[in-house]
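thought: fold this chain, then report.
action: predict
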Amino acid sequence: MNPSGCRDYLGHLQYFGVKLGLDNIRALCRALGDPQDRFPSVHVAGTNGKGSVAAMLETALRGHGLRTGLYTSPHLVKVEERVLVGGRAIPRPRFCGLLERIKDTADSLMAEKRLLGHPTFFEVLTALAFLEFAERRVDIAVLEVGMGGRFDATNVVTPLVSVITTIAKDHERHLGSSLKSIAFEKAGIIKPGVPVVSGVGGGAARREILRVARERRAPVIEAFGEGRSLIERASARGFRFTYDSGKDRYAFSPSLPGRYQGRNAAVAVAAAEALSSDWRPLERKRIVAGIESTRWEGRLETVSRSPLILLDGAHNPDGARALADHLREVVGRPVVLVFAAMHDKDIRSMTRALFPLCAAVVLTRVPYKRSATPEAIREAAPPLKGRLFLEPDTRKAVRMALLESQRINGRGKGRGPAPVVIAGSLFLVGEVKRLRLFDRSLPL
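observation:
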């Protein structure tokens, strides 16, 4: 299959949408030789932070000289970004070759009526990641859940350790409207006898995770439970954290910015300790080095310093509140916000968190069928004290924000252009990167 054929097939798969359930992925994997059973893994679920935790843990494991796999979603620019071995994305020819094998297998299964329906985009990519990790003989793979956990396509693995980072409201159409119901879906990754690391602080969500773990006799390691502590200290360069795991003490400054990355790092440390106890010894200094060297694009990513331009994939209310905290605590002045969101998100809560911190807002959309229109976002959002613009074209929206940043600078007192923040969806961040809007060699 050539690159054009790959694109066409992946585009075709998008029509099958989201399908919760494991029968299809199990049948597909069985026909491929059950590649998910041919490498050890760590399985990471959660509402927010799961990508950062997975990336930190993978970097720490790679720092021990291990050949690692990392499977995450969504991608920002290229689909190959989802499948990494040794920190490098799967090469395009290799990706297309595996995709053709999976397509042929799926077509045969469909013809033999051994599948309930056509595999989805996510099911196919999950199977592809399993094949890549098995055939590249990774020492261990870190697998990020796509959505939920119980019926997510990644949930056919039996990992060494399961991880649940946080529980908050998101994807309520599929996961339920209460924290308890969402926790139940996330806790679906807990396997009998397999240790589970939880970063969930308390309340109904914590109780539900503990209940499911008891039923499955899975040992629970609460990253912030009794005998454990996380201390933070602000500095000119960000935050310095000290995490006492009850077994050891770790001091680190995560390379990923934001106060919340301290909690993500602590969860990654707890997962690394669980692996060290039950799999193979891992060194504290290399775990810390991994946390301090992880790169993860689109999460409070700085793409320019004059003016300050941040890209952040805050795509739900908790993510928006975390971004708002960073803007208050670190940026410290009103910003110009370029905002887009998917129509099935809680746009009202997200904009309520962010709009009070904005001198101006440009509402836009991305070329994706779930994207809300600027008009729909305006309807859901609270009144804005500053200027509000509607521009559906992403390139024009960013240009408009930069002009507004300069206009505010002209009316200020020498503080420089207003910071520009591009947020509300990882799809928006991906579109900005795809267009290479901040490549200095290209005109905006």
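thought: worth noting. The two ends are 35 Å apart (CA to CA).
final: tokens above.
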